[in-house]
User: Which sequence fits this backbone?
């Protein structure tokens, strides 16, 4: 699509969604589309979404209480990943073009520090205690460890070629690094910062998830049609086999698996298979693929509700978000959103789903549950659309109280 055509399409999209905003809120107020039929929030409660704008070298802040694009924060060059601290009111942005991490005060929504890392940082993950962050530096084939209290890099560990993601296990003992360029996965022992094991044969290793009990890691092999399953070492296990990291299986899913959505209870993983327009379900207890399901054109990412009942999938090829009932085993709704929906995020109370529309430069906000005039429940409906820069590519959400 040539630039003028895309600009016209984006304009028509935003104009058409203005009516949605009016209908959802009852009136177009100066503060934008407000929640109607939502819980009452305490006056000191805040909830924001931070969206990285890769083309604008900035982060767009969306106010999810008042439903407005609240602020644009300049950060480093080409921001591509964002994460929140679970214990403090800080947000971290990986700037791929400048080799830095921007630290944002979530209350004031301003940058308070810039931490130098290495070439092309592309992912960031924070440990459960909120004391350390791990940054995968794709251009320098290493991972940075950041002390979040002092705000500086304190160590690096070499991994494989072009690391795509670094995920810290819930127990803080293992770091799982997917090496896209090396078609491999490195397991780093966090206490010693030594690479414990390397597993090869995962074509263009990309996304990874770790079970809540830190016993297994699952890695999407995006260059093929498999998910790698790794058993993570457990130093205090009574079973000799569990004392070391070990390759458990390669699971056949659909072509180009690019995203893994883990249920909060850890029981199942849902794989977005970009190349086959399907999702695959993996049972994590026995490492078996249960089924594949046609979900939409080029599924890009997914999110599972806190009650483990609903899977949401952004379909980048047909500009929709699909709602899939996990208990019923079927899609229950499809909602039209902006162009190229990719990353998804749920609000802290689960009432809102946010879809980053990468090509139309906005974020579609869905209500996860509404009711018809007859009282019948509807899973998923478009609530409003907020502008988010010219190349939004990642999102993180956090709710908190100010004092």
Assistant:
């Amino acid at each position: 699509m040539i630039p003028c055509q895309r600009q016209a399409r984006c304009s028509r999209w935003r104009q058409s969604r203005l009516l949605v905003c009016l209908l959802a809120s009852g009136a177009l107020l100066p503060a934008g589309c407000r929640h109607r039929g939502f819980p009452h929030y305490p006056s000191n409660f805040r909830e924001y979404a931070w969206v990285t704008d890769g083309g604008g070298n900035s982060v767009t802040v969306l106010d999810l209480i008042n439903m407005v694009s609240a602020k644009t924060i300049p950060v480093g060059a080409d921001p591509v990943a964002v994460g929140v601290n679970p214990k403090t009111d800080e947000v971290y942005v990986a700037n791929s073009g400048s080799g830095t991490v921007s630290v944002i005060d979530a209350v004031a929504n301003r940058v308070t520090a810039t931490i130098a890392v290495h070439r092309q940082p592309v992912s960031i993950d924070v440990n459960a205690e909120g004391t350390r962050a791990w940054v995968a530096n794709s251009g320098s084939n290493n991972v940075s460890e950041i002390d979040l209290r002092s705000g500086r890099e304190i160590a690096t560990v070499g991994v494989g070629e072009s690391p795509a993601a670094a995920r810290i296990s819930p127990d803080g003992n293992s770091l799982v690094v997917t090496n896209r360029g090396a078609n491999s996965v490195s397991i780093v022992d966090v206490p010693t910062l030594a690479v414990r094991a390397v597993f090869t044969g995962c074509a263009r290793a990309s996304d990874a998830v770790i079970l809540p009990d830190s016993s297994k890691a699952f890695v999407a092999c995006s260059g093929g049609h498999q998910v790698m399953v790794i058993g993570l070492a457990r130093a205090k296990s009574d079973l000799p086999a569990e004392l070391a990291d070990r390759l458990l299986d390669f699971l056949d899913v659909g072509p180009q698996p690019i995203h893994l959505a883990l249920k909060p209870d850890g029981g199942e993983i849902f794989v977005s298979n970009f190349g086959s327009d399907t999702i695959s379900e993996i049972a994590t207890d026995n490492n078996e693929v249960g089924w594949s399901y046609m979900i939409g054109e080029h599924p890009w990412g997914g999110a599972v509700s806190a009650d483990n009942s609903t899977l949401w999938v952004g379909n980048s090829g047909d500009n929709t978000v699909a709602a899939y009932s996990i208990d019923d085993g079927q899609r229950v709704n499809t909602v039209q959103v902006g162009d190229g929906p990719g990353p998804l995020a749920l609000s802290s109370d689960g009432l809102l789903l946010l879809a980053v529309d990468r090509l139309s430069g906005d974020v579609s906000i869905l209500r996860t549950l509404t009711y018809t005039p007859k009282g019948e429940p509807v899973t998923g409906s478009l609530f409003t659309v907020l502008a988010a820069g010219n190349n939004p590519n990642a999102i993180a959400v956090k709710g908190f109280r100010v004092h």
Q: What stands out?
A: The first strand starts at residue 45 and ends at 53. The chain has one domain: 41-401. The CA atoms of residues 260 and 399 lie 24 Å apart. The domain at 41-401 is CATH 2.130.10.10 (Methylamine Dehydrogenase; Chain H).
